[in-house]
Amino acid sequence: MTMKNQQTSSTGLSRRQFLGRTATAVAAFSVVPRHVLGGTKFVAPSEKVNIAIIGCGGQGRTNVRTLFNEPSAQIIAVADPIESENLDAFYYKGNGGRLPVKAEIEKHYAEKTPNFKVADYEDFRVMLEKEKAIDAILCATPDHQHAYVCATVMRQGKHVYCEKPLTHNVWEARLVARVAKETGVATQLGNQGHSGDFIRQTCEMIWDGAIGDVREVHAWTNASRWNTKILSGRPQAEAVPKGVNWDLWLGPRRAGPIVQLTRQSLGGTSGILAPRP
Fold it and tell me: Residues near 94 by Cβ (< 8 Å), separated by ≥ 6?
């Protein structure tokens, strides 16, 4: 997944266009091409897209590892109201939270850039205020935070990649769409299940009428990824664990106690905690 910076200057040129034209002009006075000095896959630091991760749970951590494969992307900051979370009991395994993910990012980039540092924040709004170099964010928070995070980020002129679902309801969806149009930033919804050839082939078969008119669709799951011990009712409220900012995790949701539900059913980060509806 790639995100391109489309911010424009007073001349009407985008950052990419400006860099491209400048490189062309400089090349006329150069004897040795830049790619010879830097290697065939070299990307200059000035051409990297600076990305911040908002939500460092299982899905956020997975997305970080995917971004490691993008030479034009560079993660410079992370934000999550939870410092660390043990994911061993679920299919993500290992640790999530802002500090473990921060450490993993720094270790990866240190291979080419010694002493590379990633800024970490409890509150993503503080991160946006202080880290002016951020070009784009990747939102992998629990579902109830998606619309709020995306609208806030876009209004600051940052590009957005947001995990599904984009919003909690139709009103939020219309709001996010309006803000995206007003700000003109690049946006993308992350739905890995719809990014492969198999879904395109399925659509082609349906559109071609290969199985006739589709009038009904059945979907199911054995729930093996979730907390299978909870069969009915609501679990008892629990104390707030150390290293968790419960108010920030709730965000736009109304206040309520912590209950043990599932880690992943509420989204990419900190799903061990769930507010009462």
Answer: 61, 87, 88, 100
